[in-house]
């Protein structure tokens, strides 16, 4: 039995999963756009800010926070991007109205932590408690919300004959799909912690981790809209019969 199956069984022991065919209102299209804006502005921000740095900046070793820190050339670029990312997370938490309130609140708190990261920049040497607190809190919250959302989603098999009747998007926003996504993000957070302790490739692992965390709400928003379309089509077909 794999880790996904174990976590799903743990959730089942607390409360029976909802029916597999649950029709939800689709999230608004602007929620998809706001969730797409998050990874876009984040990646563009670190690419542009890194490109204008003088020789010596190493994106594989140095973090995104360095680009918005004190004494860094054009630090306003990454600082503005971080503020935009935080606001985008907050907007996405409002727009994902089909997601349970508890998971949406975690996304919102993760966005609020992002505001703290931008407001308390990293000093020229080392870091500060304020900056690290908000950075760690944000990473932890954005790694937690897929598991919280999974608790309230229907259970759908991801493989085998029973999985053939479900679309990729339905599997993605199912309990098992969200657990898989959560495990991937959690592993990226763990990798970031390990590289921080080892002092190697911290910049690379941080970019991978934050990129995955920023992309996940977008895929979930698209999945919820596509799933609703499929389920609505199924209902229309049933009525026609």
UniProtKB/TrEMBL annotation:
Keyword Zinc-finger included in the entry's annotation: no
Domain of life: Bacteria
A Pfam family: DUF998
The keyword Protein transport belongs to this UniProt entry's keyword annotation: no
Transmembrane segments: 30-52, 72-91, 103-120, 132-152, 173-194
Protein keywords: Membrane, Transmembrane, Transmembrane helix
InterPro entries hit by this protein: DUF998
Protein name (Swiss-Prot/TrEMBL): DUF998 domain-containing protein
Source organism of this protein record: Tomitella fengzijianii
